Amino acid sequence: MPGSTVAPQVAGPKVFAHPRTLRDAVIFRRDALPLHLEVDLTTNCNSRCPHCTFQDTDKDYILDSWVFNRVILDASGMGLRAVTFTGGGEPTLNPEFAGMVQNVRALGLKAGLITNGLAFSPEMAEKVLPHLSWVRFSLDAGSPEMYGKTHGLNKKAFSRLIDNIQKAAQTKRGMKLSTSLGASYLVLESDPVDFKRAVELGRAMGLDYVQFKPMQLRNPSAVGGYSYNIPVLCEAVKHLRQLVDQDYGEAFHVYFTRFCPQLLDAGQLEHRKSVFCFGQQLTTSLAADGFLYACCHHKYDPDFELGDLRTDDFRTIWTSEKREKFFYGMNPQKRCLPDCRFADLNERFWEEYHTNFLSLRDYYEIWEKAEMDTNNPTCPDSNLFV
Questions:
Q1: DSSP letter for each residue of 192-239
Q2: At what angle do helices 360-372 and 343-354 cross, to 10 degrees?
């Protein structure tokens, strides 16, 4: 239906446009091309989210631009396609943020931004929007009251955010940009009135979409350190289905993602079968402390640290024996959220060679043969990941 989407729980269909890189992810090659880099520019933040994933980060880090510029230059030569500026803290608080965005585009890479929007002034919008493929604002509310619960801030801050988003949309239209502007809403409570307000607000501000996702709640006793309020989310899904089933036209969309089938159908979450995280082959995380981490959910965790990019270059760390040992030694069933964004992808790859009793070497050889036979209608290059 136009304007509405229930998005699948997967890393996203865009990754399937790179089948050879996906092949290398499955069989693990040290020189597998990293498609995507997530970057924390600082641990400082101007929001006070009660459920912040990184609230225990006890140091104020600001990523130096020389480290960032060296990393993207090195990684772009290895096949990097895109960079996402995210947190950690609030990326726009890094004094060199605008220049870093411009440098990404100068290398021919795509750039995206996840921001709370509080510092995204009209002046900043004019500098960076022409260089960004997309911006997602962390709205997380349809009212000042809900915003206080999700961001820990007052009505004045909510009004500033709304004003900044509206002016960013005006800048986009005025400059005739194709940049996608959207808002995310992390569901803390099942509040159909607030859900509807957020959708109406998104349309009124001139956004392209509003995206609803489950909020992760800190839970030290749970695998991965976080859990979900399952009863709340199951109730929320009923209301969200009604919202996405409406026709908003072609210019505006409503999504809800990360509400995976386990949650929707069974009302519970369990870990998938895969004992490998293939997703870490496709994307990696540069944190504000200058270290490269295998997973965005485990930044600043020494167990997931791959190397210091202040002293070593990206290629050295990416192709290192340490990273290979981490790939084979880290079992997502024991360390990660069951609803990780790569859960579907991991299970799909795991089933592909595990159920067929293929070794990684066998899998590689079969794939290589299929690639050489361009007339093979069952070539994995064409249909394995669709």
A1: HHHHHHHHHHHHHHT-SEEEEEEPPEE-TTSGGGEE--HHHHHHHHHH
A2: 90
Could you read off the pLDDT tens digit of each residue along the chain, which spans 386 residues?
Answer: 444 444 433 344 455 555 565 566 555 556 677 888 999 999 999 999 998 877 777 778 999 999 999 999 999 998 888 999 998 899 999 999 999 999 999 999 999 999 999 999 999 999 999 999 999 999 999 999 999 999 999 999 999 999 999 999 999 999 999 999 999 999 999 999 999 999 999 999 999 999 999 888 877 777 667 778 888 988 898 899 889 888 898 899 998 876 655 555 555 556 566 677 777 878 899 999 999 998 888 888 899 999 999 999 999 999 899 988 888 887 777 777 776 777 777 777 666 655 554 454 454 454 444 443 333 333 222 222 22
Question: Angle CA(52)–CA(337)–CA(225) in degrees, nearest 5?
Answer: 50
Contact 71, 107 (CB under 8 A): no
Regarding beta strands 217-218 and 226-227, do their DSSP bridges make them parallel or antiparallel, or are they unpaired?
antiparallel
CB atoms within 10 A of CB 108: 8
Closest CA to 27 of 276, 385, 202, 221: 276
Structure token digits, residue 144: 């000042």
Helix axes 360-372, 19-27, angle to 10 degrees: 160
- Kindly report the number of other CB atoms within 10 A of residue 310's CB atom: 14
Reference 255, options 214, 194, 217; nearest CA is: 214
Burial of residue 303, with CB atoms counted within 10 A of its CB: 0-12 exposed, 13-18 middle, 19 or more buried: exposed
Point out which residues pair with 255 in neighbouring strands. Answer: 5, 211
Q: What are the distances in angstroms from CA 73 to CA 42, 100, 108, 127, 291?
A: 20, 12, 11, 21, 16
Q: Rounded distance, CA 84 to CA 348, Å?
A: 25
pTM: predicted TM-score of the whole model, two decimal places: 0.84
Task: Classify the C-alpha dihedral 62-64-65-70 as positive or negative.
Answer: negative
Q: At what angle do helices 155-174 and 144-151 cross, to 10 degrees?
A: 100
Q: In sequence order, what DSSP letters do the residues of 250-288 get, joined into one string?
A: SS-EEEE-S--HIIIIIS-----S-SS-GGGGTEEEE-T
**Tokens at 73, concatenated:** 């230059």
